Amino acid sequence: MKKLLSICLAASLLSVAGTPAFAASAAPIPAVEGPSADDASGSLDARLTAVTQAVKSQLAIGDDFTTFYGEPNDSQLAPRWDLNWSSDGSNISVTADENGKIYAYRLYQTDEDNQRFWGLTAAFPKSDKSTALAAAQKFVDSLLDEQESVTLESAGSSQSDGLTFSGSLKFYGLPSPVTVRVQLRPDTLSPSYFRRSDSNASTYPEVAEAKSAVSAEQAAALMRPTIQLAPYYAYSKDRKSAELRYMVETEGDYVVTADDGKLVDLTKVFSELARAYSSTNGSAKSTFQAYAEDAAASAEAGESGGTQAALSGAELEAVERLKDVHSREQLDKALRSIPELGLDSAWTLERANYSQDRESDKITAVLRYTRPLTEAEREQAGDGYDGELLQLRKNVTVDARTDELVSVYSYNPYWDDPQTEQTASQRTAAEAFLAKYLPEKWEQSTSYEMKNSDRLLYAQTVNGYQFRSNQISIRMANDNTVEWLSAGWDEQVKFDSADGIIPADEAVSACFDAFDMALRYIEYPVLEDGMLAYRYVAAYAFQEPSDRTFQGINAKTGEPVWYSYSDDASPYTYNDLDGAFGRSQIEALAAYGVGLPGEGFRPKATLDQKTMLTLLLSACGYQYDPDEKEGLDNLYSMAYAENLVKAVDRAPEQAVDRLTFIKTLLGASIYGEAAKVEGIYTCPFSDAGAIAKADTGYAALAYGLGVARGDDKGRLNPDSVMTRQEAAVMLYNFMMR
C-alpha cells in the first residue's frame, strides 16, 4: 500500500472582499475613453504581460498550463498582481508586485501524496532535515532583493512533515517585522508553498539602509523610564493556582529612532496622525503612475535585448482579456462624475481590486474610497474616538469594461453605534445590578480602568491584589438596562500568599534586563498621499524572543516569566522511563510533540480510554489534559470530531484491549474504510480464530503496516489489556509507516 506523508498547506493569498448587492444605476454613466496610444504601456494588458514574464522567469513556469488569468490589486501603497496557472491536476498561484517580485507562491497537485486527510495522519519525516532545509533556503534566497536575507529554521510541530521552514526577514542585516514561510514537496523537495507576511501590507515597500546616531546603551537609558509595572495575581504554569507578578502597564509603544536618537511613542504618533487625517480634506495624489511607468520601463528594457520569458497561448489569452478593461484612473474618473455617489475631492481612492468571472469572462472592480469625518460628523461620533483614525469608507463595485455600477457599500459606524464611556448614573445602576444578581462575585471584586474601554470592569481581589482572569465586564444602555455582561470566573484557582514580594524598582530592573535592545526595523506610522500607512524605520525597541512571550516578573523571585510556543520545543518530558521497554519509542514521540501530560508517562500502567484518546489526539496536533477542569469534556468533543470514538461509547476509565486500540488507531486514519471491507484479507496472526470476521481487515492492515506483529508465538492477543508503553510502541510503528 502506498505510503502517505501528510502535508498541511496553509495558503493565505489575497482575496477580493465581497460587498452587499445594490441595484444597478438606472441612469446612464458618462462614457470614458479607453487607453490612448500614449498611455498604452501602462495599460492593464501591458502590465500583465510584464509581470507574467518576470514571474515565469523566476519560477521556471512552463507553457503546459491550459488556463491562466491575472488580476491586479491596485493598492496605492504597493500594487500587487494575483496570477494563476492551472491544468488538469495542477495549479500555481502567485502574488507578485508590479516588477515581478514574488510575495506568495503555491503549487497544488492533486496526486495522492498531496491529499490532506482530516484525521490521524501523523507520520515521521521521510527526508533528511538538513537536505530539505538547504533546498528551502536556496529557493527563498532566489526570491529576495539584495538588501534582504533570512535564515530559515524548522517550523515543525507535533503535526510537522519536516518540510516546513520559516524565518524572520532581515533588511541590510537587521531584523524586521516581516516573516517568511516555505514548504517543500516530500518526493522532490521542490517548493510547494511560499509566503511573506508583507504580501498584502499597509507598509511602503521601500527600505533605507540604517544609520544610527545613538548606541544601544544610550537608547536603553532613554527607554528605562518608560517601564511601568503593577503587581497582580496571574495563573501559574499549572493553571490551577495563581501567583503574584509585576505586570507591564506602560501606556504607549516606545522606541528610540536610530537616525536621530529620539524617544518616540508610536501610539502617540499614530494618534496625532489620525487627528491630522481627520482635519484634512482627504485629497491625495496618486502614486500609481510611478508603478505603471516602472512596468513600462521594464517592458522596454526587455524589448531592447534583455531576457524575458515568452508567454504561452493561455497567457496571451489572459492578456487579451484585459485589453479593453479600464484602468484604475479611468474607473475613478467615471465614478466621480456620478454626483449621486458624492465622491468629491474629500474622498481618496485607496485601491482597486479586479476580479474575473472564469465562465462569463466578466471583469469587475471594487474601488475602495475613504475620507475623514467632517467637524459635524466628529461631534456626532463623540469624544470616545479622540485620537483614532476617524474615516468613512465606501466600496463601489463596477463592471470594469462598461463602468456599470454593481454595488455600493458605505461604512460609517461612528454615529450608528456610539461607543461612549459609561456615566456616573450608569455605573451606579450597573453596580446595583451586580450586587443584586451576582452577589458573591461582586463582594470579591474591585473596579479598574482600561484605556479606551466603553465598559465597566471589575476583577476578583485577593490579599489586596487583583486577579483579572476572574473578571466582570458590564455596559449599561442609555436607559440603564444591561447592554453587555460577561462574568468569567474560575472558582477552583488557589492563590499564593502575598508575603515577601520584591520592591517595584527591582521588578523594573528585572523587566528591563529581560529584553533585547538590538537595532532593528519597525513599522513607523506616516500620513502620505492622503493615507495613513507605515514605513520601515530603523529603531531600538524592546523585543521579545521569537519563540516566547513575556508574562511579567515573578513578584517573589524577581525572575521573568515567559510563555514558550517554540515549535521545536517538546511539551512532553518524563522522569519515569528507566527500564521501560518502550522508552526509545516514547521519547521519539515526545520529541515530535506526541505524548501524555505530566512529568510521568507511567509506562506500565493500564491504558484506559481517556489516556488512549489523549495520546492519539496529541498525534493529531491537539493537547488535552483530561484531569483539568473541563479537560475531559473537551477531550471527548475533539475525539468525536476526529472520528476516534462515538459518543455512545464514551467510557473514560474503561481498560483498552489490543484490538480496540488497533481499530481506533486505523479507523481514524486513511486506512479506516479499507479495513472495513470483508472477504479480501487473510489474517496473518496464529490466533486468527479469536478475531471476529468483521475485524480481520484491521488485524491484517496492522500487520502489513508494521503496527503490530504479534508475540513470540505469532499471536495478536486481541483481548489482552494494553499498557501505556505498548500503546506508544504501536503508535510509533504507525508513524514509521
Description:
This protein has 19 helices and 26 strands. Helix content is 26%, strand content 25%. Strands 1, 2, 3, 4, 5, 6, 7, 8 and 9 form a nine-stranded antiparallel sheet that branches. Strands 10, 11, 22, 25 and 26 form a five-stranded mixed sheet that branches. With 737 residues, the protein is an alpha+beta fold.
Would you spell out the secondary-structure blueprint of this structure?
Layout: H1 44-59, E1 67-73, E2 80-87, E3 90-97, E4 102-109, H2 129-142, E5 148-149, E6 153-154, E7 164-171, E8 174-184, E9 191-196, H3 216-223, E10 229-235, E11 241-248, E12 254-257, E13 262-265, H4 266-279, H5 288-303, H6 313-321, H7 328-336, E14 348-356, E15 363-372, H8 375-381, E16 391-399, E17 405-411, H9 413-416, H10 424-437, H11 439-443, E18 445-448, E19 456-462, E20 465-476, E21 482-488, E22 494-495, H12 504-513, E23 519-528, E24 531-540, E25 548-554, E26 560-564, H13 583-591, H14 609-619, H15 631-641, H16 658-667, H17 672-675, H18 696-704, H19 724-735
Parallel strand pairs: 11-22
Antiparallel strand pairs: 1-2, 2-3, 3-4, 4-9, 5-7, 6-7, 7-8, 8-9, 10-11, 11-25, 12-13, 12-24, 14-15, 15-16, 16-17, 18-19, 19-20, 20-21, 23-24, 25-26
Helix pairs in contact: 1-5, 1-6, 13-19, 14-15, 14-19, 16-18
Write a short abstract of this structure:
The protein is 26% helix and 25% strand.
